[in-house]
TrEMBL record:
<dbReference type="InterPro" id="IPR001650">
    <property type="entry name" value="Helicase_C-like"/>
</dbReference>
<feature type="binding site">
    <location>
        <begin position="183"/>
        <end position="190"/>
    </location>
    <ligand>
        <name>ATP</name>
    </ligand>
</feature>
<dbReference type="InterPro" id="IPR022737">
    <property type="entry name" value="RapA_C"/>
</dbReference>
<dbReference type="Pfam" id="PF00176">
    <property type="entry name" value="SNF2-rel_dom"/>
</dbReference>
<dbReference type="InterPro" id="IPR000330">
    <property type="entry name" value="SNF2_N"/>
</dbReference>
<dbReference type="InterPro" id="IPR049730">
    <property type="entry name" value="SNF2/RAD54-like_C"/>
</dbReference>
<comment type="similarity">
    <text>Belongs to the SNF2/RAD54 helicase family. RapA subfamily.</text>
</comment>
<feature type="short sequence motif" description="DEAH box">
    <location>
        <begin position="282"/>
        <end position="285"/>
    </location>
</feature>
<keyword id="KW-0378">Hydrolase</keyword>
<dbReference type="InterPro" id="IPR027417">
    <property type="entry name" value="P-loop_NTPase"/>
</dbReference>
<dbReference type="Pfam" id="PF18337">
    <property type="entry name" value="Tudor_RapA"/>
</dbReference>
<dbReference type="InterPro" id="IPR040765">
    <property type="entry name" value="Tudor_1_RapA"/>
</dbReference>
<dbReference type="Pfam" id="PF12137">
    <property type="entry name" value="RapA_C"/>
</dbReference>
<keyword id="KW-0804">Transcription</keyword>
<protein>
    <recommendedName>
        <fullName>RNA polymerase-associated protein RapA</fullName>
        <ecNumber>3.6.4.-</ecNumber>
    </recommendedName>
</protein>
<comment type="subunit">
    <text>Interacts with the RNAP. Has a higher affinity for the core RNAP than for the holoenzyme. Its ATPase activity is stimulated by binding to RNAP.</text>
</comment>
<dbReference type="InterPro" id="IPR038718">
    <property type="entry name" value="SNF2-like_sf"/>
</dbReference>
Amino acid sequence: MPATSTQLSTFIPGQRWISDAEIELGLGTILQCDRRSVTLLFNHNGETRTYSTSTAPLTRVVFSEGDQVTHQDGWTMRVTATEAIDGLLIYLGSSNEGEPLELMETQLAHQVQFQGPRERLLTGQIDRNNEFMLRALSRQAQTRLAKDPLRGLRGPRVGLIPHQLYIAHEVGRRLAPRVLLADEVGLGKTIEAGLILHQQLVTGRARRALILVPGSLCHQWLVELLRRFGLPVTLVDADRAQATGAPFADATIALASINWLTQDEAAMQQALAEDWDLLIVDEAHHLRWSPHSASPEYERVRQLAEPTPGLLLLTATPEQSGEAGFFAQLQLLDPARYPSLEGFLAEEEGYRSCATAIARLEAQEPLKAEDLTALQERLSGDSLALLDLLDNPHTSDEQRDSARQQLTEQLLDRYGTGRVLFRNRRASVPGFPERKVFPVALDCPAVYKEVLNEYDEPHKQMMASALTGQDWPYAGLYPERLYAIQKREEGDWWNFDPRVDWLLEKLSELNNEKILLICAHADTALDLVDALRRRAGILAAVFHEDMPLIERDRAAAWFADDEDGAPLLICSEIGSEGRNFQFAHHLILFDLPAHPDLLEQRIGRLDRIGQTETVKIHLPYLTDTPQEPWLAWCGEEGLDQFSHPRPVGATLWQQYQEELHNLLEGILDADDFLPEVKATRQAAEIELEAGRHRLLELASHRPEVSAELVEQLADDEMDKELRNYLEVALDVYRIQNEDLDANTWYLKPGQESDTAIFSDVHFDMEEGSSGTFLRDKALARDDLHFLTWEHPLTRNCLEAATSTVQGNVTVALLKNPALPAGTLLIEVFFCLETAQQAGLDINRYLPPQSLRLLLDGQGNNLSNKVKFKGLSRQLVRMKKGLAREVVKLRKEQLRELLDKAENLAEEELPSMLEIAQQDMRDLLDPEIARLTALQKNNPAVRNAEVEQLVEERKQLDLALNAASLRLDALRVIVAGGQE
Ligand SMILES: Nc1ncnc2c1ncn2[C@@H]1O[C@H](COP(=O)(O)OP(=O)(O)OP(=O)(O)O)[C@@H](O)[C@H]1O
């Protein structure tokens, strides 16, 4: 609201003034005054203030012709003239309908607030120069960051690993990404998901996310999200649900156990009642599905995934439950693209020919006749046109290159699983250490032989499966469980099982090295802990599914502790999922799991990113028991799983069910069977290489793209700007800052500090905390914050500096002898804004943009000649009293200059709008084109879906067209004179 002020030397009851020190009080009315003091009532909140007349920080409010004023009853009028009676003003004007009106200043609405820089300047509200600096730097940074193509990738405390960055960059920029992250075990799916989530949040594409993980991984996820990504995560569990009626309601990022949501209907309903932008589900192979039935977990995720725009499913073993399970995961992600299992299976058949053609396109080789036929059969519309272009001899090299690239991308997206599935394999990620297996054959005790024979009886096999959780003959892999319920004179199984004697020897041989032991059953794990304690006084940490979460985390932490930690952690199968134990180099497999993917999960605990040594796998087994042929099937003669992950393992396991049964029963001899397994595995691997895997590999990582990402992220140019920025911010918010070394700062809030900027920052408010600008140092030192433009502290400063009026007006002195004293300049910042519309997420398409203008006293535009930084260096502060005096004296000139600046800004507006519209189209148009193309292949893509996007684009076009520039901050600069 435009208003001006005059400093009158006398106060008269009824006059309207504002408090310079407490602008938020609004318009005050003078109640009484005498020679010494003046008292005002601020009707806005009913408070009164009494000041000394000589030092009262008050400014008289006087409206001028053209200003709009509001009566306390709510009506408004535009001022055409002003009269004064006994020192009180009467505003004359007219209503919108032209009816003449009068308004006494005593009747002015008290809510009037002076927020805009123009009004604040003209009413003498002047901020400190460094507050203005912070605001201006923040606006500039916001504009720059909004355009940064690597936004959201800079802040996380992660090593720059190319395949992860590729996926994160590819997926994180999408609107509502729906993908399956299926890198092989330990390649960093959690990190990829974190990077995608971080990008989505930082860019405003997502505001809230729900993360569902197996209960045993809740803590690990919580720690990773906090430590690496600094994200505001809330662990939502039964305790929280009990304490609050709506446990998910305030959570920006809610982390919950999928087991809990599956068992607790009320919790599920509470999760469903919230609006999530992104759903992340870890270990998605647990979502079992078959054409006839779906597991409760699958159903839960389906219900949550349907209304949620984004979905990330994480699994290292997407095919653990066969083709149908794999298809079910894809269908959760993109029901339109994957409407039926039959269609999907038929499509799989075509991968091979398609993959060969794509490989040729990638290698820039000419397509062969059979490639053309294969592609022509599948392609339509724009893809076919691209193919024709390639085939046309008149096409230029440049056109050919671009057509080749587009065609590859479209093929991967529309005709393969490329757009929804990312799967990197160890084979293509350098730096993994070797694995070495050390099988140790041990004689089977007679008592075990008796037990195994006993349970081989058909009527006892049900019992065997109840004891081991495995059907016969797989149950025979775990004789200690079959024995354990029997009361025999030999006593506890661990008294005579030779694996335990071997274990005791091994422990003493490895003397304090960290060792992870995995066995199939919780009871075996517990018995082993007992055995080691009783037989040798060894204390081991234990980890199994029946322990409360907190105890599991404690056990894992005790094992991880370098100094006083346990050298041995004994885990049941559950311990082999998702956990990070790569600091250990020895893995003891006390038994073998029945499924190849579980074996890979076990080895993957140590064989993951960060493992620095060869992984040693120790494997004691009992001869003449089912363990012997099972080891042979897993080992070199069969699947050869110990040396490398084997993606075809699950398929072969399915295919050879009958033979495996006979092998374990001793009906089939390993030597007769395993050569065939080996040959089939090798053939299947070649097939996969050429078919889906080839396609996947192409779509999951493009090294030339990731190399560039790594290079850009390692560039420290942005850091320098950041240091300058943070110095100003810490000064404004009164945070102490000490250099510990060239790249490490120690920050400590003081009594006067604005602590709001520490919200969501894990900061020691008492002792202070330190941070570094170096990624490597931050990776090595968990105690240091990683200071980046995306650190929550920086983000809070950016937000705080631009969301209040603080710093939107200042007056500064220019120390430049070349300019005559009294020369006036005005520097203004405008922001591009448009009205919010229900249902349109306009902020997503109109990121912050600001316009800076610098005018001299005559209104000449110097913006391009004199830059913000150079000018700022020559400025010093001007005392407030003097600054007000300057404003008062030069008021008319300032008004004119501001009008002029607004006119200039108007001229710039069209080109700014054009850029905003282009950015919006760049985001939406490919999405529309993709859906339209998919629709041609697949009638399940609904027309309404495409139409909705087209309509949204139209509405956004209109809304962006209506955007305008708002004056956000101004600095009056006066040359010469002394401070
Ligand atoms: N870019 C990175 N920087 C630092 N550490 C990383 C990075 N990527 C992965 N790691 C570490 O490597 C380990 C494996 O990563 P993560 O847990 O994300 O793998 P995963 O693929 O989810 O494993 P799993 O298949 O077992 O669930 C973790 O300890 C993780 O912290």
